[in-house]
């Protein structure tokens, strides 16, 4: 019996070292060498080198002078990232959406992306129409021409061959902050 157990244990040890140690180290090394920014969280730094956010995680912005991301079911906390899991018939969902409606002021019907949470609760992107919906409010608050804000939204719209175009709200607000005198 030991003749069968010893090779099985040896194979388990070898495969554990290959799949549990060697492979993860190789993949991490390739990631650090080829995609260092993405492998380290796609962090954004200010002019002093201080981390101010990540392009992968939404942040709350308050005030009418900023573009606002979609609401977060977990209050933008990465630990509790998730959807609200409330059914369309749930009164709590209706109450939360009713509370979100009308916070943004724009022309036309409010885009759903500004009142509905994303699946993770941390999606940093908005559809371009949801960003454009906020332009009138921001232009008024900052005393900027709406055309300049429209140009900023267009410059920060990420277009994809597969899937919809999106705007990263943090990057848009950073550009807005640099653009405003």
From TrEMBL:
The protein's matches in Pfam families, at most eight in alphabetical order, are given as: KdpC
Record has Transmembrane as a keyword? yes
Its annotated compartments are:
Cell membrane
Query: What family is this?
Result: Belongs to the KdpC family.
> What PANTHER family has UniProt attached to this entry?
POTASSIUM-TRANSPORTING ATPASE C CHAIN (PTHR30042), POTASSIUM-TRANSPORTING ATPASE KDPC SUBUNIT (PTHR30042:SF2)
Among HAMAP family, the record links this protein to: KdpC (MF_00276)
Q: What is this protein called?
A: Potassium-transporting ATPase KdpC subunit
Q: Which gene encodes it?
A: kdpC
């Amino acid at each position: 019996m030991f003749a069968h157990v010893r090779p099985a244990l040896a194979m388990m040890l070898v495969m554990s070292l290959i799949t549990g140690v060697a492979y993860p180290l190789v993949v991490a090394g390739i990631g650090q060498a080829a995609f260092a920014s993405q492998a380290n969280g796609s962090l954004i730094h200010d002019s002093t080198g201080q981390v101010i956010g990540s392009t992968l995680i939404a942040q709350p912005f308050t005030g009418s002078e900023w573009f606002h991301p979609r609401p977060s079911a977990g209050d933008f906390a990465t630990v509790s990232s998730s959807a609200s899991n409330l059914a369309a018939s749930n009164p709590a969902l209706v109450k939360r959406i009713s509370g979100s409606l009308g916070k943004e002021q724009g022309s036309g019907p409010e885009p759903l992306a500004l009142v509905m949470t994303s699946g993770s609760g941390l999606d940093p992107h908005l559809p371009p129409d949801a960003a454009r919906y906020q332009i009138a409010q921001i232009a008024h608050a900052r005393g900027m021409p709406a055309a300049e804000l429209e140009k900023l939204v267009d410059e920060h719209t990420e277009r994809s061959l597969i899937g919809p175009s999106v705007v990263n709200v943090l990057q848009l607000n950073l550009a807005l902050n640099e653009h405003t005198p």
